[in-house]
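Thread title: Can someone regenerate the structure for this chain?

I was given the following input by a collaborator and told the matching structure tokens would be attached. They weren't. Posting the sequence so someone can regenerate them.
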Amino acid sequence: MGFNTALSGIQSASSDLNIIGNNIANSATTGFKTSRAEFADVFTSIGQGVRLQASAQQFTQGNIAFTDNPLDLAVSGNGFFQLEGGGTTVYSRAGNFKLDSGGNVVNNDGLSLTARQADNNGTITGAIAPLQLSNAYVNASPTASLQGGVNFDAREAETNSNWLLIAGVPDTGGYNSSTTTTIYDSLGNDHTVALYFSKLDPVASPNQWNVRTLIDGVEEDATVVSFNSDGSYNAPALIPIVFNPGGGATAGQAFDVDLTASTQYGSEFAVTSLQQDGYTAGQLLGVDVDDTGIVFARYSNGQSQAVAQVVLANFANVQGLRPIGNTAWIETFSSGSPVVSDPGTAVSVWCNPMHLKNLTLTLPHSWST
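Best answer:
Regenerated them for you:
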């Protein structure tokens, strides 16, 4: 009986060493969670020794390491990434993700990271599916508004109202100042818009200027704008412009020129702001993730749009999850069903020690071990 008791101790100690050795061997494994040996006696009343009762998983917070991969994520606190592949859903703390040939965000086993999808307007819809980044062009958006803030120099003299326009270029005697910018048609083609400002007769037309709009060297509009005696802008509120871009783009493109932020003071001509809302087509350049887990795609045309929101899963009893290797687990009856939430709610994604108190996902990217 004493020999069996001693043997049980040796076997239990050996099991404990195996567990410790496995923990040490995986000390650099991304998303790995340690286990500990838990022992129980065997028929205490007759002293048959000790046995290994359980190898209990320890889901404590791991270390955070910075990486250069924009798709690397880390979980701070409770929760698991939800992954799908081959009709199976698994859960992992390892956030080292990459793109496969189809643009899917996957781990090293080819399992897809799941996320709430966004519609074409960038609104998160709530439908959970594998996260995929498309290489398709995003559509161009034609200019609908051009807004400018300009100071018209009140000291300027009247100019010749009958200006000459040669090869799209007016003679300098026909205007006092000008500015240019770029707008876009329905195909994303760019067009040069030039605004020329000509002071009218200060006696017959006080505080009034003629604003001529040229697009690609063609005069499309001439409108008189007026200012109040204190230098503030008066009228009109908008200058409607219609032009034909050509080249297969939509004919009769209309946009408004808004100069209501302009002034007329006795100081040098200056353009304080000039912006328009159109853009050309664009290709995917990269992705960013904000502090709510929303994945933004960045495009070559300077635009960005939400494409998805990473989801995390948690369980009533995480130690009831069954490990399947490759730092992944599957649910069991003991673990209970997963509760899927957005980052920043019940469970959170995190990528920056500076934002630990927020428990959210942000740049720079990192791994959780």
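The radius of gyration is 33 Å.
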